[in-house]
Amino acid sequence: MDFGLTGKWALVCGASKGLGLGCATALAGEGVNVVIVARGAELLEKAAAELRTTSSGEIKAIAADITTAEGRAAVFAFRKDYDIVVTNAGGPPPGDFRDWQREDWIKAVDANMITPIELIKATIDGMAARGFGRIVNITSSSVKAPIEVLGLSNGARSGLTGFVAGVARSEVAAKGVTINNLLPGSFDTDRIRTTMAGAAKKAGTDIETIAEKRKQGIPARRLGTPKEFGEICAFLCSTQAAYITGQNVLADGGAYGGTY
């Protein structure tokens, strides 16, 4: 299926590895010109080189911290207008809310709520003027089912979800612009491996035991892959998905047990 994205320009954040790279790969495969952003220059350049081997579009790597004003300025200095924006930033660390200070909350909200809002603010009017735009925010399944030890993430990402629910249904919806949130459950990424390693150490067992227990709690009995996550993202960016906006698309292998 042709997604109708050839020649479009996409900005994909946190794209040096994991889910962000999965999204960049899928979009590049559709002939999209992709600007990938991450903090680590070496890993980012490696990702860009891999994308160039399979893409017919332009690939640009910008090593910057997208959660800072300076990082966003670097991205928009290269190009002002984007047809597709995929927001993504590493989640805050787990912990007990009793231990968190104001600075911890500000950092979490800045990275996982304010940064996506700033990127939307910078691009949405141009999208509307051109009659096409796709914004996909990579958030978390914890928006649907909060995870106790991830309170910083639960709070910040829920704030973004509320904001998107309103702006996605504003006047831009009639001008070809969609905004959706893509909620990953358990995917095979560095972040989940680090989390499982910590859980294994705490439980006095090995990471394989923890991983198998995690898989058994998922109806699909496996972890998701960045590749399939990226393909979901690419579909949400497609011309075929023009009637989907303001939604929270959960990709978790059936782990969430609710009806809605």
From TrEMBL:
Family classification: Belongs to the short-chain dehydrogenases/reductases (SDR) family.
SUPFAM superfamilies: NAD(P)-binding Rossmann-fold domains
Protein name: SDR family oxidoreductase
